[in-house]
Every structure is written in C-alpha cells, then in structure tokens.
Amino acid sequence: MTKRIKPDRNLAMEMVRITEAAAISAARYMGTGQKEAGDQAAVDAMRAVLDTVEVQGTVVIGEGEKDEAPMLYNGEKVGMGVGPEVDVAVDPVEGTNLMAYGRPNSIAVLAMAEKGSMWNPGDSFYMNKLVVGKQAREAIDITKSPADNLYAIAEALGRDVRDLTVFILEKERHQPLIAEVRAAGARISLHTDGDVMGGLMACIPGTGVDVLMGIGGTPEGVITAAAVKAIGGGMQGMRAPQLPDEKARLAAAGVDLGQVIGLDELINAEDAFFAATGITGGSFLEGVHFDREAGVTTHSIVIRALTGSVRYIKGIHQLKRPMDFKNRDIEGTHGLEDL
C-alpha cells in the first residue's frame, strides 16, 4: 500500500507566489471596465505558477465544468504531478466587478487541502452562510433567525448587539435580512461583491467586521471555509437555490434544502491552507502597487489550519519585463522567475 504524502508547510509560501502572480496580472486591468480580460489574465497566471508546484492537484472549486469554462475548470489536474495529492479551490479574481471598476476588496484566492476533503457543491450554486470568529463559533445556529444569532454572538463576545458589525452583500434578496439586522440593533457593512473577503474579515480579529450573513455563491462558500477552518472560526451553510434550473436540479436529486452544512463537512481535513493577495486596496489587504523605483508591491495573507498560523506577507517584485503567462509555452516563463 502506497503511503499518502501529507501537504507540507512549505506549500503555504508556494501558494502565496500563486496568488501574487494572479493579483499582479489582474491589477493591470484595474478600473478599465474589462472584467473578463482581468479574470483571464489572473487565470493564466495562476495556472502557470500552479504548474511549478510539487503537488498532485485536482481543481474541485474552479470556474465551472470543462465544456463551459476553459479556465481552471472543475476536475482539471494542476501541479507538477509529484508530491501530496490535494484538492484545490481557486478564485483568481474574487470580485471581478470590484477589480474592473477600481473598487476596494478584490482579491486573488487559493485554497488547498488533502485529496477528497473539500465538499463538492454539485448543482448547488447559492448558499446561505453564517461566519464568525473563534470566540463565537459555538454560538451560531443558521436554522435560527438572524436576530437570535446576533444576540447569541453578542453574548459570546461579551458585547452589546449594537456594537456588532455584519457584512452583507447588497442584493435585492437581502432586503428582509437587512431589515431584521437593523431591527436587532446591529450595524451593517454593505458590499456589492466579495463574500470570501467578507468571511475572512468576519473570522479575523481587528477587521471591523464580526459576522457574515446572507446568500452568496456556494463555491465561494467552500473557499471561505478553508480560511475559517484554518483560523479556527465558525461557519455554517445551507443550500439556498436562486435560479430556476438550480432549484429544479436539486429537487430532482432529492436534496434536502434544510440540511445544515457545517465547517467540518465543507473542509473534512485537519489541515488546510488558504492564501489571498489583494488586487485593489481594501479593509486589511493592500492592493497591487506599480512603482518605477520601488517595484511592484503586493500584500497577502496565508493561513494554515494545522498550526493556526496567520502570516501577512508584503512582497516587493522587481519585474524585469511585463508578465505574459498566456504565451509562456511559446516564449518562456515571462516573469515566473521574478516571483
């Protein structure tokens, strides 16, 4: 029987190199309105650097199925094909609109965990999520009302509900949620996009956000779970289909929409790695800065579940030439050596 190789701690730094490359490539499109081009540039960069890492990776959370998404699709094999077998979750640009229109909090995100440990969302595209930090992780119950959860979270934190800040995506579907949170007395931080960042902020102390509530993407939920697991926070989810086809497929499969999906089901492993690099500046990650004298600077976070370590990394890159990962097979690495 072949002994399975466990992910190594060095994987954390390799992951930062990957998200840095994606962020730098996408940042060239900041404010241009070209969200597809920025996303494609980040995908090309992420794939190129992923393929230099000694892992046997399978993309579990990607850009969609192979026939519909030619970019880091679900099931794609990545890495050098040697080393530990890992599940890979990617979001080369979380917040493509944020990047394209120069708004805060767009990030390049990558998560890895042991093979077979990441929950597969299948036909579930939307999920109701509840995320908190370590102190309140035992207090949450997504089957209860938002107000009940806020009171329980406030008690766990030893604070007044009025002192809590809740991250909510500014979507029409959230109008009842927003009204209930306001009625409970909590403060709200509304964002047009980016609930991976919201989940990250909710579980990291000192960001000004205490809770993430509401419906967002299910794939993003799995990526968020890697960060929450790594930092020791709390998270629960429930499928919340929003699209007619999504509802029909889940109904045909007999899926129980009342099932609570806990953190250990979303990431069923003791160890998980999460890395993110800011593309546009935000609440606690700076964006990519281009400077002729200082070089290109990046700001990243990397977290490992096994140790609970959280590292913020400021990178200064002296790029000898513009990175062009799309044409790397024809003309060389085009910037890989500078990362």
Based on the model shown, name its key terms.
339 residues, 8-stranded mixed sheet, alpha+beta
Give start-end ranges of low-pLDDT stretches.
328-334
From the helix content, strand content and strand pairing, which structural class follows?
A: alpha+beta
**Sheet having the most strands:** 8 strands, mixed
> Tally the helices: what do you get?
10
Helix amount? 25-40%
| Percentage of β-strand residues | 25-35%
Write down the secondary-structure element order.
HHEEEHEEHEHEHEHEHEHEEEEH
Q: What's the Cα radius of gyration?
A: 19 Å
Distance between the termini: 38 Å
Count of distinct strands: 14
Structure explained in plain terms:
This protein is of the alpha+beta class and 339 residues long. The chain is 29% helix and 25% strand. It has 10 helices and 14 strands. Strands 1, 2, 3, 4, 11, 12, 13 and 14 form an 8-stranded mixed sheet that branches. A hairpin with a 3-residue loop joins strand 12 and strand 13. The longest helix is centred in the N-terminal third of the chain and has 17 residues. About 2% of the residues have low confidence.
